[in-house]
Amino acid sequence: MTAGQDHWSAFELPRLLDIDPAWLDQTFRARSRELHPDRCFVDGPEAVDRAMLASSRLNDAYRALRDPFRRAETLLHEEGLTTSGKYSPPPDMLLQVLDWNELLDEDPADPLTRVAIEELSAELDGREQADREALDAIAQTWDDEVKRAVQSGGRSAMEPERTRLLDALRSLLARRGYLENLRRRAANVLGTR
User: What is the pTM of this model?
Assistant: First the structure.
């Protein structure tokens, strides 16, 4: 991967969201062997430096693409969008989130509070699964649009859906980020992380 290329180009892929993890691992290992600086040691220090840079970029690309949610965040970044890292409570869950925050402020030594926090933790885990399913649905539609655009010769073919899908993705990641913060807080209160 050279400067200016995105993480997908390190694996010769268009910007797909659904990438087979086994394929990604296998391709990463093969390319890592090809790009390893030790393979070009006899070609001199400049060749070693180029190999180290290429290997570093491949590692960055692999880290960005191996987790579906991180891949989605990377796509937003590559598309010039961001989730900003500051998460607000999802508007449709505002009252519920306020209740959860109050619960997490209570004394976990109280048996009833502890049970309620454990139930909250289980509910948040269930929402994690729902978020994965929502991401899968967005990914399927996004990938279909990318493939159509590639076949028709350009990104403009996906413009009508592109904005809607990126907005849905940004909204999902912002919601998930906020709920993940709650999940971490519940785990810390329970002493499970």
Answer: 0.81
Tokens 């949610």, residue located: 69
How many other C-beta atoms lie within 10 A of the C-beta of residue 172?
19
Count the Cβ atoms, other than its own, within 10 Å of residue 153.
Answer: 8
Per-residue pLDDT tens for 76-118? 998 888 766 666 677 888 888 899 999 999 998 999 999 999 9
Distance CA 56, CA 3 (A): 12
The per-residue DSSP string of 91-135 comes to GGGHHHHHHHHHHHHS-TTSHHHHHHHHHHHHHHHHHHHHHHHHH
pLDDT digits (tens, 9 = 90+) for 27-50: 999 999 888 877 776 677 887 888
8 Å CB contact between 170 and 83: yes
**Residue 18 has which token pair?**
């659904």
Question: Is the dihedral angle over the CA atoms 21, 12, 160, 151 positive or is it negative?
Answer: negative
Query: The dihedral of CA 114, 115, 116, 120: what is its sign?
Result: positive
- Roughly what angle, to the nearest 10 degrees, separates helices 21-35 and 45-65? 170
Give the number of other Cβ atoms within 10 Å of residue 74's Cβ.
21
Residues in the chain: 193
